[in-house]
Amino acid sequence: KRRVALLSGCAQTVLDPAINESTIRLLTRHGVEVVVAPGAGCCGSLTHHMGREEAALASARANIEAWSRVAEEGGLDAIVVNTSGCGTTVKDYGHMFRADPAWAGRAAKVSALAKDVTELMDEVGLQPPARPTGQAVAYHSACSMQHGQRVIAPPRRLLAAAGFMLREVPDGHLCCGSAGTYNLLQPEIADELRARKVRAVESTGAAIVAAGNIGCITQIGLGIALPVVHTVELLDWATGGPKPAALDAA
């Protein structure tokens, strides 16, 4: 149906490589060809957060070059990102290079192609569940997802289509305390935010927490007994993939 490039990322591949595996299985099962562009790597968001602008732009240039090459060779319908913090940055490449005549055009094209994985799956349409689900899932919408990208409905629609009982988290507009490098640079405030988020999640009575950002998954997971998984892991499982390891461990 489509050909997409997947941003494999850096922190996520170390913290939870199963997320990329689930993403590739899910997309492939739904008729989407997935390629990983040689030379693409870190999106540059973490260095960008810290004000290390040249390092951030260097990462962005490497990605723009890699994805442009893959697009020229075989065409691309989208650049899929499954970490919303990274997705917000990739969608911002056009703005970051707006005053650079050598890169502005290509950066804008890359930003226009960038989609969160749930945006793409919402367009493609989820297959009927291959197994019964029905678990109550508290969906945590990362700040980078709901505020940065304005991706609100697609993850919720997909979880419901997969048969899960969606539970909204009270004060869901508030940060969990991860916020890129914030939990490292401001740990005390980040811990307070996590404690507040955990109380809100637990109040839903859900059995599982789903999120679309590895920073949030790690941050919330450190303070809660419930399994915290990526949205695509649940969608993959529901449509025929393996059960997420965190659910077996719960």
Fold blueprint:
Elements: E1 2-6, H1 11-15, H2 18-29, E2 32-35, H3 45-49, H4 53-74, E3 78-81, H5 84-90, H6 93-96, H7 104-113, E4 114-116, H8 117-124, E5 136-140, H9 143-148, H10 153-161, E6 165-168, H11 182-185, H12 187-202, E7 208-211, H13 214-221, E8 228-230, H14 231-238, H15 245-249
Parallel strand pairs: 1-2, 1-3, 3-4, 5-6, 5-7, 7-8
Helix pairs in contact: 2-14, 8-10
Report on the structure:
The protein is of the alpha/beta class and 250 residues long. It has two domains: 3-122, no CATH class; 128-247, Rossmann fold. The protein has 15 helices and eight strands. It has helices at 11-15, 18-29, 45-49, 53-74, 84-90, 93-96, 104-113, 117-124, 143-148, 153-161, 182-185, 187-202, 214-221, 231-238, 245-249, and strands at 2-6, 32-35, 78-81, 114-116, 136-140, 165-168, 208-211, 228-230. It has a four-stranded parallel β-sheet. A four-stranded parallel β-sheet has the order 6-5-7-8, with helices on both faces. Helix 2 (18-29) crosses helix 14 and helix 8 (117-124) packs across helix 10. The longest helix has 22 residues, at 53-74. The chain is globular. The chain starts with a strand and ends with a helix.
